[in-house]
Design goal:
disordered C terminus; about 75% helix; about 250 residues
Length: about 250
């Protein structure tokens, strides 16, 4: 196993770069980041439409979410792979196909995360914002959405973990990500499939486990801040520190 890592470690990490195209784990991370970043504004727009009081916005958004979440990602990869060239009249690379697929797919899931974040806020905030004269759009963009985005950071990290694992399906359209690189190595060696795919599984596990722990840490930190128990730099809890005396404040 260590001999495989010594001989093919670079291929797993960056593919044939700099003597060829970038690949391996680097492309997996690039695909995941692009898929999530490009899907985020679309997901927010779908979420706002999903909770809109206007039916002509809410119904199409619900249809998009239910259709995307009800179809396997592999089917979307095939649809985009065959439909986009027909639509544009030119061939599209596997990388571009995978990015488009991930943007559409992740936007539906992010929309539900954003919706849950907004609906998880106390209803009194909406009523207070409307009471001071803010419109529906102003209430969403200036009051509710900033708080919801802060609270949903751990969920976004978890979604990034899911996206990393979903990029492995790019293998079926020859996207040069880490699973594709592992299959190339297995085809070269022919006799060590268990070792090759164990290394691949270990790479995914280390990456996803680290990000999952990060999401858990962010979740605890946000929960602590929301409960108002965040300790100051002195190490004293706010309750133990007590109020500041007038002479001290002076």
């Amino acid at each position: 196993m260590f001999s495989i890592l010594r001989e093919y470690g670079v291929l797993l990490l960056v593919g044939q770069y700099p003597n060829g195209p970038l690949g391996g784990l680097a492309i997996t991370l690039v695909l995941s980041a692009l898929g999530l970043l490009l899907a985020f504004p679309l997901g927010v727009a779908i979420a706002l439409a999903r909770i809109s009081p206007f039916g002509w916005l809410r119904m199409p958004a619900m249809a998009v979410i239910y259709v995307v979440r009800g179809v396997p990602l592999l089917m979307f990869i095939f649809w985009v792979y065959f439909f986009v060239p027909v639509l544009t009249g030119r061939m599209v690379s596997g990388f571009t196909t995978m990015v488009i697929t991930l943007v559409i797919y992740q936007a539906a899931y992010l929309a539900e995360i954003v919706r849950a974040g907004i609906e998880g806020l106390p209803r009194g905030q909406t009523e207070a914002a409307r009471a001071v004269g803010l419109s529906y759009i102003q209430t969403m963009t200036k009051v509710l959405l900033p708080q919801a985005l802060y609270n949903m950071v751990p969920a976004l990290v978890s979604q990034f973990v899911s996206t990393i694992k979903e990029t492995s399906l790019g293998y079926v359209i020859s996207v040069n990500e880490v699973t594709f690189a592992a299959n190339q190595i297995n085809s070269s060696l022919m006799t060590q499939p268990f070792q090759v795919y164990f290394i691949l599984a270990a790479i995914y596990f280390c990456l996803c486990f680290s990000l999952t722990r990060l999401a858990r840490f962010l979740e605890r930190r946000i929960a602590t801040r929301r409960e108002g128990t965040f300790r100051p730099a002195t190490g004293l809890a706010p309750a133990a520190a007590g109020p500041i005396a007038p002479e001290q404040a002076a």
